[in-house]
Amino acid sequence: MCRHLEVSRSGYYAWRDRGESVRELEDRELLPIIQAEFQNYPRGCGSRPAMKALREAGRHVSRKRVVRLMAADGLRSRLKRRFVRTTDSRHTNRIAPNVLKRDFEVGKANKVWASDITYLLTKRGWVYLAVVLDIGTRQVVGWDVSPTMEQDLVLRALGNAIVERRPAPGLIHHSDRGVQYTADAYRAQLNHHGMTCSMSRKGDCWDNAVVESFFGCLKQRWRATTSPTTGGG
Hints:
The structure is a single chain. The protein has a five-stranded mixed sheet, with helices on both faces. The chain has helices spanning 2-5, 9-18, 22-39, 47-56, 63-72, 151-165, 179-182, 184-192, 209-226; strands at 112-122, 125-134, 139-146, 172-175, 196-199. A hairpin with a 4-residue loop joins strand 2 (125-134) and strand 3 (139-146). It folds into two domains: 2-72, no CATH class; 112-226, Nucleotidyltransferase, domain 5 (2-Layer Sandwich). The longest helix has 18 residues, at 22-39. The protein is of the alpha/beta class. Helix 3 (22-39) packs across helix 4 (47-56) and helix 4 (47-56) crosses helix 5 (63-72). The chain is elongated. The two termini are 43 Å apart. The chain is 42% helix and 16% strand.
């Protein structure tokens, strides 16, 4: 074996009889703490929660070392991915015309708002996020989170935006034609505040591209902080 591996026999026996190094002994002490923290999560965790547990135990080590130990022990969080349809257009509610017509360069704040719903995976399970985005400033002016996609989710997001910005009558509110946005209660809120309702064409996500782009950036950063490869939890 030594001949095929091109190492000296004396070097092999010295390695065999040397025993564990100080670093290896420390790794053996760190691993049970990491394993215990990993078991605290239904689908496991990444390196950041493991590092926090180690610090609380008085062990300050690098994240690279934690990642190495978790990989060697096969500790990898299991993120179950799923496809969720957040737009249900199978209804008989009234559909508003597409007033916006992809004119996303509106020039100033409180002239056009766009709304939509997406979903995110958290430690406590899947949640739905509704946002109201000011197209003029590209800022989120209202949002709300819920474990379900009930109508109150979008109503709360809209209400938060109205309280935050108090827009003058004439603002264009654009959304898809999902059942939450075509509901009478939502349309009544828009009418009460003098907003013009605009909706995307059926099955055309590009009509609401600004919000879709925002969700894309949000989910990219969300995955970067929660995926096991980057060590989040």
